[in-house]
Amino acid sequence: MSDAFRTTVQKKLSNGDFDCTKEFTVSMFSGKHKLMILWILINDGDQGFAALMNKLNGVSKKVLSNQLKELIDDQIVNKSETITGNTKRTAYSLTEIGLTLVPIINMLNDWGKDRLAQVEITQKFNQVNQ
Amino acid sequence: MSDAFRTTVQKKLSNGDFDCTKEFTVSMFSGKHKLMILWILINDGDQGFAALMNKLNGVSKKVLSNQLKELIDDQIVNKSETITGNTKRTAYSLTEIGLTLVPIINMLNDWGKDRLAQVEITQKFNQVNQ
DNA sequence: CTGTATCCATTCGGATACTG
DNA sequence: CAGTATCCGAATGGATACAG
Question: Which residue intervals define the domain HTH hxlR-type in the entry (chains A, B) (predicted)?
Fold first, then answer.
């Protein structure tokens, strides 16, 4: 899923058209890796840039950087930098607003799990009857 | 949002990788107009092609056609054709599986409404304090 | 009315090289 | 470690013309 949502929603909103509330919500996680980024922050806690790179398996730095920027822009994710001596440490974490997305993400996960289980059963059923 | 989700998720699934349950759910409505299509079917009941075109405001036939095809493919939407005499009537409706998305879509709508209200209040607050 | 076929512009994400 | 810059290919959506 690309981000036709985010751009379109932002245009609508800046034109005073607020009839896109559900699209607005989806635009929070419509980047290809955003859901997974949020999932990691929810389950594994705060993460540095490299840790996210590893856990995301196959994202380029540019893309990860962009998706994080948008999440920060949308106030879903917070970036903190702590400097100890001459080493800088970056950490990304969920904001309070980001935390309010957790029930939604869990619901998405549950629906997908149930649906995939259904599909699997159907496939087996069809195989048996072939 | 484009449909990087749908394609990616389908590839993962066909490779036996089922670790994308939430992405799978989002892929159900990741096309630019799918959420709105579902919203219309939920609130206004079954619709013909032309009715959807009108209510969607600015979609091209090709795009609408594609998004409907994918929704049908995902078993979220059903297409029925009734022929009376020599006139054919097409109607799109939600399937039983499609109906199970309703709570999710309502949740998305609620979150967006609340969040936009927050943002609006914040903006007014900032204006007052300028 | 309900689409399909073609062409085109834009956007998004991936690979790679470079920087502090 | 944490990015930015550049170039590129693929995918999406829009406009328009044509068809059953």
Answer: 20-120
